[in-house]
Design goal:
By secondary structure, the protein is an alpha/beta fold. It has helices at 13-22, 34-40, 82-105, 142-155, 178-188, 207-219, 237-248, 258-265, 270-273, 281-285, 295-303, 320-328, 423-452; strands at 2-6, 26-31, 46-49, 66-69, 114-120, 131-132, 163-169, 171-174, 201-202, 204-206, 225-229, 235-236, 277-278, 308-316, 344-349, 358-365, 368-380, 384-391, 396-406, 409-419. A 7-stranded parallel sheet has the order 3-2-1-4-5-7-11, sandwiched between helices.
Length: 472
C-alpha cells in the first residue's frame, strides 16, 4: 500500500514509518519541517510539506491507499493555560477536519480506502476501578472533551465510504522519550515513588506493540471503529512504581503527594493522577497479538542496558562499491565531522583499515579536550563495518555503518548505541546534551556527504515538491 503518515517525526511516528517500510509499504510523510524529517526518517520515505491548519491539496491524496494520522501537540510539557488548551484541541480537531474535508471533495474512486487516527484513553476520564472497554462511555474533563471531538471528526470519513479506525493510546513506554523518558531521571537517582495513594490504575503499552497495532489497523481491511491501544495488563500506579524500581535496581520509597503535583503542574496533573483501567477488548478480538502483554518483561526489554539508540539514513547517487572506499579511509572522518569538535585522526593501525584496526583521535567536546580510540570489530567491504570505542568520552559507543543498494545509488545507514559515563547520575546530568550533540554531528555529516557525493538534499525530488525515497 501507499500510505500517508502525519506526525511521522514523533515518538510513535518514526518507528511506525520504519515498520511500514520494512513490510514493503510505500510511505509519504506529511511534515511541517522537511529538513528535520529528512534527518530523522528512513531514506526510503518520501516527504511532503504540510500545514495541519491549512486546506489540503486533493492531488496529494490521489493514489494514496491509506492515511495514518498521528499529528497533534503534546499534552505534556507545559501547564494547561487557556491558550495551551486551545492549541492542543486545534492541533487534533482542526487537522482531522481538514483531512476529512479534503476527502469529501475527492471523487469516490480517488479517495484513500482507510483513515487510521490516533486518539487517547483520556477519552474515558478519571474512572476509578471501573474496567473500561471500547464500548464504555466518554468521561469528563478537558482530555475527554478533546478526544471526543477528535474522534468525531475522524468518524465523518466513514460516511464517505472510507474505513476509519481510532486507536485510543495509553501511556506509551519506549526508549529515549515518551512517558518513560520523563520518569527515568528521578527513578534512576533513587528518588522515584508512587503518586498519592498509588491505587489509581495506569494503562500502558510498549512502543513496539503500539507500532504493531497501527500496522495491524491499516492492514486489516475488516477492522473499523475504536480500538484501545493498551496492553492487557493494566496495573496500579503503586505496582508500576515497584516494577520500574525493580527493573532499574533502585528503591522507590519517596511518594509524590497529589497536591504537590497540582501546585506544580496545575490542571495538567490530571494526566498523572487519573485512574483509567482500560481493557483492549476489541483490539484482541481483531486478532492482534501483543508481544509485551505484561509490565515486568516490557520494562526489562527497554531498560536492560540503559543504552541510547539512534539511527540515521540518507541516499546518495553512487553505488556501494563507489561509496565504501571513502569510508574505508579513516582520515576522511575529518571531512564529515563538524568544526566545533576540532576533530583530528592521530593514528591508524594498521594503515589499511580492516577488522581489528585501531584508530586514535583527538577532539574537543563542550570545551573539554579528549582522546578517543576505537577498534573495527567487523569489516565487510561494500556492505558494512562496525566500530567500538576502546577509550574515550562514552561508557559505550557502538557504531554500525551499513551500505544498502537502492535506486542505482546507496542508502547509508548509521546505527549508534551509546551510554554516558558516571552511570545514572551522568545520564541525568549529561544525557540530554549528549543526545543533542550526536544529532548535530550526524546532521552535519548528512549535509557534507550529500555535497561530496553529488546531491544537495540527499534524495531526489519530484515536481510536486515531494522529496522521494526509494519507495516513493
Amino acid at each position: 500500500m501507499k500510505i500517508v503518515v502525519t506526525g511521522a517525526t514523533g515518538f510513535v511516528g518514526t518507528p511506525l514509518v520504519r515498520a511500514l517500510i520494512a513490510r514493503g509499504h510505500e510511505v509519504v510523510a506529511w511534515t511541517r519541517d522537511v529538513s528535520r524529517a529528512r534527518l530523522q526518517l528512513p531514506a526510503q520515505c518520501a516527504l511532503q510539506s504540510w500545514d495541519a491548519h491549512a486546506p489540503n491539496d486533493p492531488a496529494k491524496l490521489r493514489g494514496i491507499d491509506a492515511i495514518i494520522h498521528l499529528a497533534g501537540e503534546s499534552v505534556a510539557g507545559s501547564r494547561w493555560t487557556a491558550a495551551r488548551k486551545k492549541e492542543i484541541l486545534a492541533s487534533r480537531v482542526d487537522s482531522s477536519r481538514s483531512l476529512v474535508d479534503t476527502l469529501r471533495v475527492m471523487a469516490a474512486s480517488d479517495r484513500p480506502r482507510a483513515l487510521i487516527s490516533a486518539s487517547a484513553i483520556g477519552f474515558y476520564g478519571d474512572r476509578g476501578d471501573e474496567v473500561l472497554t471500547e464500548r464504555s462511555a466518554a468521561g469528563e474533563g478537558f482530555l475527554a472533551d478533546v478526544c471526543r471531538a477528535w474522534e468525531s471528526e475522524v468518524a465523518r470519513a466513514g460516511a464517505l465510504g472510507v474505513r476509519t479506525v481510532a486507536v485510543r493510546v495509553g501511556v506509551v513506554l519506549g526508549r529515549d522519550g515518551g512517558a518513560l523518558g520523563a520518569m527515568l531521571p528521578p527513578f534512576r537517582l533513587g528518588g522515584g515513588g508512587r503518586i498519592g495513594s498509588g491505587r489509581q490504575w495506569l494503562s500502558w503499552i510498549h512502543l513496539e506493540d503500539l507500532v504493531g497495532l497501527f500496522v495491524h489497523a491499516v492492514e486489516s481491511a475488516q477492522l473499523s471503529g475504536v480500538v484501545n491501544g493498551v496492553a492487557p495488563g493494566a496495573v496500579t500506579n503503586a505496582r508500576f512504581t515497584k516494577e520500574l524500581g525493580r527493573a532499574l535496581g533502585r528503591p522507590t520509597i519517596l511518594p509524590v503527594p497529589k497536591l504537590a503535583l497540582r501546585l506544580l503542574l496545575g490542571e495538567m496533573s490530571a494526566i498523572l493522577v487519573a485512574s483509567q483501567r482500560v481493557s483492549p477488548e476489541r483490539t484482541l478480538a481483531s486478532g492482534f497479538a501483543f508481544r509485551w502483554p505484561e509490565l515486568g518483561p516490557a520494562l526489562e526489554s527497554l531498560l536492560a542496558d540503559g543504552a541510547h539508540e539512534l539511527t540515521f539514513e540518507q541516499w546518495v547517487p553512487r553505488t556501494p562499491d563507489e561509496v565504501f572506499p571513502f569510508f574505508a579511509d579513516a582520515r576522511n572522518l575529518e571531512k564529515i565531522t563538524p568544526d566545533f569538535l576540532r576533530f583530528n585522526v592521530l593514528k591508524v593501525t594498521p594503515e589499511t583499515v580492516g577488522e581489528g584496526t585501531t584508530i586514535d583521535y583527538k577532539l574537543v567536546l563542550r570545551g573539554i579536550p579528549l582522546r578517543w580510540r576505537s577498534v573495527i570489530e567487523e569489516w565487510v567491504p561494500g556492505k558494512k563495518f562496525v566500530d567500538r570505542q576502546l577509550k574515550g568520552p562514552y561508557s559505550l559507543w557502538h557504531h554500525t555503518h551499513e551500505f544498502e543498494p537502492a535506486d542505482g545509488g546507496t542508502i547509508l545507514r548509521d546505527r549508534v548505541r551509546f551510554t554516558v559515563p558516571i552511570g545514572a547520575l551522568g545520564d541525568v546530568v549529561a544525557g540530554g546534551f549528549v543526545m543533542s550533540d550526536v544529532r548535530k554531528i550526524f546532521a552535519y555529516r548528512h549535509e557534507r556527504i550529500a555535497e561530496i557525493f553529488g546531491t544537495a538534499s540527499g534524495r531526489p525530488s519530484g515536481n510536486d515538491g515531494t522529496e522521494h525515497g526509494r519507495a516513493a
